[in-house]
Amino acid sequence: NNYFKIAVLPGDGIGPEIINESIKILDVIAEAFQCKFHFDYGLIGAEAIFKTGNPLPEETLKICKESDAVLFGAIGDPVFDNNPEAKVRPEQGLLKLRKELGLFANIRPLKTYASLIDKSPLKREIIEGADIQIFRELVSGIYFGEKFTDPEGEYAYDVCKYSREDIIPIAHMAFQEAQKRKKKLTLIDKANVLDTSRLWRKTCQEIALEYPDVQLDYMFVDNAAMQLILNPKHFDVILTENMFGDIISDEASVIGGSIGLLPSASVGEKNALFEPIHGSYPQAKGKGIANPVASILSVAMMLDHLNLQAAADKLRQSVEHAIENKYVTIDLNTKQYYSTSEVGSFIADHI
Amino acid sequence: NNYFKIAVLPGDGIGPEIINESIKILDVIAEAFQCKFHFDYGLIGAEAIFKTGNPLPEETLKICKESDAVLFGAIGDPVFDNNPEAKVRPEQGLLKLRKELGLFANIRPLKTYASLIDKSPLKREIIEGADIQIFRELVSGIYFGEKFTDPEGEYAYDVCKYSREDIIPIAHMAFQEAQKRKKKLTLIDKANVLDTSRLWRKTCQEIALEYPDVQLDYMFVDNAAMQLILNPKHFDVILTENMFGDIISDEASVIGGSIGLLPSASVGEKNALFEPIHGSYPQAKGKGIANPVASILSVAMMLDHLNLQAAADKLRQSVEHAIENKYVTIDLNTKQYYSTSEVGSFIADHI
Ligand SMILES: CC(C)[C@H](C(=O)O)[C@@H](O)C(=O)O
Ligand SMILES: CC(C)[C@H](C(=O)O)[C@@H](O)C(=O)O
């Protein structure tokens, strides 16, 4: 198979700019590796609310369901953040999309680049050689449990719910990934307080019996938030629930020196979505300064997923070539820097 | 008033060792500042479970309720952590105590010590001058909402609930503290996803009207977990809910170089409890290597609370004197170090 249907959802803020670079890359890949990508564009987020009133229009969902992969930009707009009473919010579009496509596992690889190591707020000796893969459960927990605000506005609640079935598939994925790596899996939870965390611990304990070569250990989320900074090399594969994963993986992004470098894949039984881990960065919108690398490396994860391994490898090499040659955006080098589209073209040219 | 009833709960792991040093300090303070402390000891945590079956015996609760202040050591034991099916857990003792005493605000001051700045995993220029005060809501949210595990063990849930009344008192405390400092308050939440977070945002927006001199801003918890490491000097006073506060404040402890230095106060209408932010550190139990400073600085916060300001100031000076003279435990200097009790005595002698 060398024909792929890609749903493209640029979204809000800097989303469209970085997605442009990813498309540029895919056009070059198509030529170099003799394959064809068909792009279907869809609206999502604040952009979709402004145009249709709906953060995830039916048409967008349809395009995504029929795709071989979804390429996602970014979501979120300060207009909604500062209004606690807005009924419709951009983020609902992304959350609904994750749920409808059953994207239960969000995978975030973290590593350091030799030439960028001094950009990190952490000391070189702390982070050099750190290499972590985070598995965050993405379609359950407090994000998707019942929510309620009483009409008088006196109280509100959010329910965090997990069943064994929500945990088992992602746990297997994480164990299998650990087998391919240093064979160490850390489950992050708050089992000294939460019933759901104890269910995670118990379920993972059982699954661990099927992976006797993997060492499973447990860490409370408060301690993990500390250990990730004190000693990131302690970690190999991390497995955690939705809310803790949101916090821990953004925190862990500081290890690599820039959140502008970090890709993610969200995968389910049938569909998969690829997006940078950074947000919509509204202050930078339209300025041509956004770092396209996180989105471009998300394309590399997409190529892995489509079994275009040679293309994925070549793309990663080209990104490293750009970074090692300091052909980067302003977030990585304030003295000598290039625009979003210059960096995208430089990477494309190297492929 | 110069007579104070202090409830002393050493708890688990290194708790008893560090509490011994705090008592040593209080004995010296009593003499130097002409006051009297009466100590009532109580069982709590794993220690209490082993001896009475109950992590918070009635007698302990009674001592605490009748006290002017509670001095708390540490809680937690690996025997329970590794058993997801244990019905009775040490942490329940502390949680119940917080609830019964109505200790709604957990206050954690964070600062850096000039002589220890190079101990931090973060670079000097990132942390030098950072000074943050965290207010964590302590008796509501997902810690205390309804919890359920179905008897078959197929699913579980935890409810995060907040009412305006839970938020208002701690919000006022945080605004008032900000007024005394740099007049900047950051509310950390996940208002783009959670109803409870939107209630926090709305309630704080209203209260902000009473503090026009304080600048209130909002930050999503995932972004905050990143910004705390990228730019800790951005923060002055932080206000947040229970679970986020647990994670964020442990994470923020890396700024100062050692979690062994950080005290906390948990205050309510009638009672107050003082404890180090570190855990029971079971691996170090009985070895005389634990750092007593966090517990001793918790005593300083207790002296503030009892309006013994001169004593509190003198105690803080004595701690700084010990640190500047490198009279510290092994966690702060692996080349030349002193035992838990040597450090306690050195500080006591300086008072
Ligand atoms: C935009 C927001 C709803 C989302 C989340 O919290 O999952 C984002 O922070 C992420 O991590 O992808
Ligand atoms: C021991 C545990 C229940 C407790 C908490 O989560 O509140 C601790 O981590 C703390 O922060 O005081």
Automatic annotation (TrEMBL), chains A, B:
Its cofactor is Mn(2+); Mg(2+). The keyword rRNA-binding does not apply. SUPFAM superfamilies: Isocitrate/Isopropylmalate dehydrogenase-like. Pathway: Amino-acid biosynthesis; L-leucine biosynthesis; L-leucine from 3-methyl-2-oxobutanoate: step 3/4. InterPro entries: IsoCit/isopropylmalate_DH_CS, IsoPropMal-DH-like_dom, Isopropylmalate_DH. It comes from the Bacteria. The keyword Metal-binding applies. GO terms for cellular component: cytosol. Its EC number is 1.1.1.85. It catalyses: (2R,3S)-3-isopropylmalate + NAD(+) = 4-methyl-2-oxopentanoate + CO2 + NADH. It holds the Pfam family Iso_dh. Binds 1 Mg(2+) or Mn(2+) ion per subunit. GO terms for biological process: L-leucine biosynthetic process. Residues 5-347 form the Isopropylmalate dehydrogenase-like domain. It is found in: Cytoplasm. Mg(2+) binds at residues 222, 246, 250. It is an enzyme of class 1 (oxidoreductase). Substrate binds at residues 98, 108, 136, 222. Keywords: Amino-acid biosynthesis, Branched-chain amino acid biosynthesis, Cytoplasm, Leucine biosynthesis, Magnesium, Manganese, Metal-binding, NAD, Oxidoreductase, Plasmid. GO terms for molecular function: 3-isopropylmalate dehydrogenase activity; magnesium ion binding; NAD binding. The record marks 143, 190 as: Important for catalysis. Belongs to the isocitrate and isopropylmalate dehydrogenases family. LeuB type 1 subfamily. Catalyzes the oxidation of 3-carboxy-2-hydroxy-4-methylpentanoate (3-isopropylmalate) to 3-carboxy-4-methyl-2-oxopentanoate. The product decarboxylates to 4-methyl-2 oxopentanoate. Homodimer. This is 3-isopropylmalate dehydrogenase. It comes from Chryseobacterium panacisoli. The gene is leuB.
